[in-house]
Specification:
alpha/beta; 5-stranded parallel β-sheet; globular; about 45% helix
Amino acid sequence: MKRILLDTCALIWWLNGSSQLGSVAKEYIAHANNDIYVSAASIWEMSIKRQQGKLEAPANLEEIIENLGFNPLAISLFHSEQAGNLPLHHKDPFDRMLIAQAQAEGLQIITQDKQFDSYGVKVIHASK
């Protein structure tokens, strides 16, 4: 059993059935024995992009995540402090939060972002 956090792009690709999400990543997400986590940071990011017109996403993401059987991952004060203390390899605050959460919770992360490798988290490349 693996415990896996989805990066926002991986979540979007999964929800859209996009071919950009590789077969290996799809297998990890679909495997019944794996625990899949979705961060509140990803839902926040998607909501902002939806409001800005940069992303078409449903308004009921919480319900969709629950129906998929994914685990919601709240942002704690510890996560917030850890994200702020990360080295500045990555500037995106949402991605920094995902990295901090993966580190704090011992999660692997499915992402296409190569900068995640610099933080010592176990990465599953989304496009493979």
